[in-house]
Amino acid sequence: LAVIGIDLGGTKTAGLVLDRGDIVERYRLSTDATSQDSVMGGLLEVYSRLRESAVSKGMEIEAVGLGIAGFVDFERGVVTEAPNHPLRDAHVKDILEKRCGLPVFVDNDANVAALAEARLGAGKGARFLVHLTLGTGIGGGIIIDGQVYRGALGAAAELGHMVICENGPHCNCGARGCLEAMVSGVAIYQRVEELAAVGRVSPMVEEFLADPAAFSAEAVGRHADAGEVVAEEILREAGRHLGTGIASLVNIFNPDAVTLSGGLLGSFSHMEDAMRRSFAETAIDISRRHVRILTGTLGDDGGMLGAAILALESLKG
Ligand SMILES: [Zn+2]
After folding, report:
1. DSSP assignment letter at 177
2. Can you tell me the distance from the alpha carbon of 291 to that of 128, in angstroms, rounded to the nearest whole number?
3. I want to staple 178 with a disulfide (CB 3.0 to 4.6 A). Which of 27, 171, 209, 270 is the partner?
4. What is the pLDDT of residues 171-208, one digit of tens each?
5. How many angstroms does the Cα of residue 159 sit away from the middle of ligand 1?
6. Which residues in the chain come in under a pLDDT of 50?
């Protein structure tokens, strides 16, 4: 059975063809987030290219799965809201099924990334799994008894907005001290901005001041690699907060595995010890001893693979 899985993010729309468990085709383009039509147009182009090359090799596509950054009503296949692109109350499933003539399944991108890690990735075989994507923001997915947990409206598993410090920094969502406001790429950038504002001097702060727009959390990792103490401190702090957040999740869900993915893993060596220490201090013993905290093995493919797995499994019922 061959299926197409597409990951629609704020910056790229990337897809693959999964044929009996193997990735056989790939295609990606930049997301044109000008309008709903431009986003849907990009989605359809990725779909068409993948289907054409699959058909030309004698494969038959049976279904399409989509992972989309935003709130998704899975049953109806409607994207209700999205932070990084203009899909609002978008009936993505209906629109694509009409254009493709195939069953289409739509879910949140972090939900399908969790599904991929539970089926094929670091958490393979886990019945209970919590997944965190650590990037510019923080996304989350929860697998309960083998199934994606979506909540009443498809808005569940916003793990980045778990509050871990009531009086902490302001978060994009309007609250304070969310995991995303303490640990994400944006949060790490803000820590550097604060150091620059109070006149701290270091090569990292100099690089920031030279071109704040070009600076990113990745640069903090680079300076930490070079042994710069302030950079190491920022990442250690982030690691400590991450460990506290993971402990709360483990206390609530008693998972077999917690998997981590995303761009921040490039700096993970500077975060991991502090993360494991605060996790061990905070988590309940019985759950702590059982769970494995793992870095995901699927990388950027997680979203696309998860979307393809969603299509396969939904097709089988
Ligand atoms: Zn928040």
Report:
1. S
2. 10
3. 171
4. 989 999 999 999 999 999 999 999 999 999 999 999 99
5. 9
6. none
Residue 299 CA to ligand 1 centre (angstroms): 24
- Helices first, then strands: H and E counts in the chain: 11, 12
Residue-wise pLDDT tens digits, 9-49: 888 999 999 999 999 999 999 999 999 999 999 999 999 99
State the distance from the centre of ligand 1 to the C-alpha of 152, rounded, in angstroms: 20
CA of 52 to the centre of ligand 1 (A): 41
Neighbours of 49 (CB within 10 A): 16
Distance of CA 24 from the midpoint of ligand 1 (Å)? 38
Q: Do the bridges between strand 129-134 and strand 257-261 make them parallel or antiparallel, or are there none, so unpaired?
A: parallel
CA distances for 254 relative to 179, 197, 277, 294, angstroms: 19, 42, 18, 15
User: Dmax over Cα atoms in the chain, in whole Å?
Assistant: 63
CA of 54 to the centre of ligand 1 (A): 41
**Is 0.90 topped by the overall pTM?**
yes
